Structures are given as structure tokens and as C-alpha cells.
Amino acid sequence: SIFSIILLLILMPNAYSIYEELIYSGTVEDKDTVNISNRLFEFRIDSVSSKVYVEIDVSAVIIESGECKIKGNLDICIKNVSFSYRNYTAWYDVYKATVDIYQIKSTIGATQTIGQNNLLIDEETTAELAIENTADVVAEDVTATIKIPPSILVTEAEGCKKTLDSIIFNADVQPTQIKKCTYKLQGIAGDNFELTANITYFDGIEEKSATSNTISGKVYNHSLRISSKLNKTSFDIQEKLNLTIDIENINDVYDLRITTLGIKIPEKLLLVKTPKGTAANNNIISWSGTLAPKEKKSFIVELQSLTTGNYSVLTEASYKISKFSR
Predict the structure, then answer these.
(1) CB atoms inside a 10 Å sphere around CB 290
(2) pLDDT classification of 324: cutoffs 50, 70, 90
(3) Could you tell me the CA-to-CA distances from 259 to 271, 319, 321, 326 in Å, in that order?
(4) Chain-centre distance of CA 300, in angstroms?
(5) Count of beta carbons in the 10 Å neighbourhood of residue 325
(6) Is the torsion defined by CA of 175, 207, 108, 104 positive or negative?
(7) Residue 41 in contact with residue 34, Cβ under 8 Å?
């Protein structure tokens, strides 16, 4: 019915969130002109309809008693229209209105998201900064800066621009508008990192600042750790000794698949016994297998010295973690 449609329109809430500052509160009479925040307001009061005609510079708005209306970045409220006094000289009644005028301000909120917080070296992910004006006036000159730490590299940016060490967004944001800055990150050095957007904007009255949430993440270093040690620092010819090779997957998320682990035994040392699960060929011990996250594995090689001298054991490995080969 017509009644139900009208009732729905009356009950619907304002779609905007209004953030405002009171710049005038007082009583005006018919034909008064008032300077408010360096703008001229002229008030004409109609006693029959209890409406007030408010002229602001070269524009105007008509407001009923007990109501508010938005005009530009102003929220003008006529709280009451009432009789003031009788002008016996001109022989007419003078009416007055109680008026509150608010300056409407824009308010910026910012949210950051990231596809993946923890990255391997060379791995990429996408991050997004969403900037929203939750008020009903434009937020001017919105500038957001995200400092990029040295452990990651920005490879692409959309809706913003990348510099040597920052992501920068700059634009006006309209009422209720959400603007997005999307950028791709690549891990380049092992370290923890944080991403925060520091924002400045003009809210219609003054310069304001805001801060987004902080994204915390980590770039994993090369994930295979290798160490070796002898059970003796000096030994005689024909004396036996043990060489221990320790390997560890220091990544706490990904399996590490070792395609080749090679231990090269010097010619002056005799290979007496190879570790279980390994193969030996021409004084080279080899192994392949998978280490779970944080898993350690040790290989004990039994050797015997053939001549005097200093010895150096070379251990090399190639491996794959996720889709990346090292």
C-alpha cells in the first residue's frame, strides 16, 4: 500500500555515518545575518509553516522546525521556531529559531590483508590495502605510505605506486567509497617483517592521520643447515676416527626434499664404514630423502688415516622446498 511504502522510507536509516563538529549553537531572529566560520548565513523564518529559509553565501536550504538537513559539508538543525516579540513600530510579530550547525567531517579507515604471511625466498604473495571513507563528505588528499622492509621486494602495484622502499597511495576518497591498493611481494632475504600503512588526509576541517592494522610475516632463510665434526682433533697413521654430518630442516612449515647430499672423503683418508641408508662411490658418500619441518638427521662415517697431514671434508647438497630448488 502507499502507507506502507511511505512508512518504510521514513524508518530507513541514513546510509551514511555522520562525523561532525558543532560550529554554531544559538538563537536567530527573522532576517538575521550571522558570520559562522567565515561564511555568511541569512535566516528567514516563516511563522505559519514553522520553516526556516537558510541562505549560505549563494546557496540555500529550507528546514522545518525539529528537523536537520545536510547542505554540502554542513548539517543544519532547526530545533525550535517560536514567537519572540511584537514589533509595534512596523506592527508585526517577530519569530525566532534555535539553531545548531555542524561541520561534517570525513573519516578514513584502513585495512590490510595478505595472501600468505610466511614466505620462502623467491616465493610471491599478494597484499591489499583497502581505504574506506565512512562519512558522507569527501576525504581529500588521502595519502597512505607503507614502508617495505629489506627482506621483501615489491614486484607489482595496482591502485598505488611503488618506490624504492615504499608503497604510496594518493587520491581523494568519496563518501562511503572504498579504494584499494593491491601489490605483490616476493621474499628475498630471511627475516621477520611488518607492514603498516600510515595515512594522512584532510577531513574538511583539518589535517588528520590514521593507521592501518599491521601485517606480521616472515621470510624463511635457506632451510637446510649442514654441520660436521670429527671425534678427534689429532690422530696417528692407521688410527680410526668418526666423522659426523648433521643436517636439519630449519623450516617449520615445509618438508625439505634433498635430491643429492654428497660427502667427499679426502684421498688420504680410508672409508671404513658408510652410514646406513647411504651409498658410496669413489670416496663420495651420497644420500637422498625428505626431512619434515624442524627434522634433524645425522650420518656417522667411520674413517682411517693413511698419511699425516691436514684434512678437509667437503659436504654439498641440492634440495627442493615447496616448488623452489636450491
Answers:
(1) 12
(2) low
(3) 23, 5, 11, 10
(4) 49
(5) 11
(6) negative
(7) yes
Contact present, 96 and 87 (Cβ < 8 Å) = no
Q: What is the pLDDT of residues 120-138, one digit of tens each?
A: 888 899 999 999 998 878 8
By the 8 A CB rule, do 283 and 249 touch? no
pTM above 0.70, yes or no: no
Cα 41 to chain centroid, rounded: 43
Exposed/middle/buried for 250, CB within 10 Å: 0-12, 13-18, 19+? Answer: middle
Are residues 106 and 179 in contact, defined by beta-carbon separation less than 8 angstroms? no
Cell of 79: 530545533
Unique residue bearing C-alpha cell 516563516:
46
CA atoms of 173 and 137, how far apart (whole Å) = 9
Q: Is 15 helix (H, G, I), strand (E, B) or coil?
A: coil
* Alpha-carbon distance values, 91 to 30, 208, 313 (Å): 15, 52, 115
Q: Which of 277, 173, 300, 176 is nearest to 230 (CA)?
A: 300
Total residues found in the chain within this entry:
326
- Which residue is it, cell 641408508? 277
Q: Is residue 59 over pLDDT 60?
A: yes
Cell numbers given for 116: 600468505
- How many helices and strands in the chain, by DSSP H and E? 1, 29
Helices marked H in the chain: 2-11
What pLDDT, in 10s, does the model give residues 221-264?
777 888 888 887 777 788 888 888 898 988 888 888 888 888 88
Contact 220, 121 (CB under 8 A): yes
